[in-house]
Write the structure tokens for this entry.
Amino acid sequence: MAVTTRRNRTPAEQPTGTSATAAAHVWAVARIALAWIFLWAFLDKTFGLGHETPAAKAWTDGGSPTMGFLKNSPEGPFAGLYHDLAGQTWADWLFMIGLAGIGAALLLGVAMRAAAVAGGLLLVLMWTAVLPPANNPFLDDHLVYTIVLVGLALVGAGDTLGLGRWWGNTALVRKLPILK
């Protein structure tokens, strides 16, 4: 049996045509769908739209975006840490800025690397808050979304149906490529 190794493809070897275009659009749709997950959480917690956050507990009405989840959900090895963080003003602000920033970056297709790192970190922290996961001894949606975020950044998903190509050509990103 022959063993093959993976190598980077030259531009001439890159997939082209219908399958490459379809794949780029699937990644773009995944990016937009994941953006909506982050943005909906931000909007619901900010304005108490009634899905997970009742209007009376909206951030705009003095509610804490971290209080409900971090006070009630954690039961695993990090429960004490998360219970202590619940309702802390700095934690509320970091959480909400993270949700909005990650969601906006994904929706626009810009700063995909930064969105993948920040989103992955946020999701892994949320995963540690629910250890062990309810439906699986290890894996849950937080880790799956983290993997998808990494994939989105690796394939340049912001270039299709997004501003990624333009963003990558800005002077700021050329100077600081980590912002790509």
Observations:
- Residues 23-179 form one domain.
- The two ends are 40 Å apart (CA to CA).
- Helices lie at 18-47, 67-72, 79-85, 89-108, 112-129, 141-154, 164-168, 171-175.
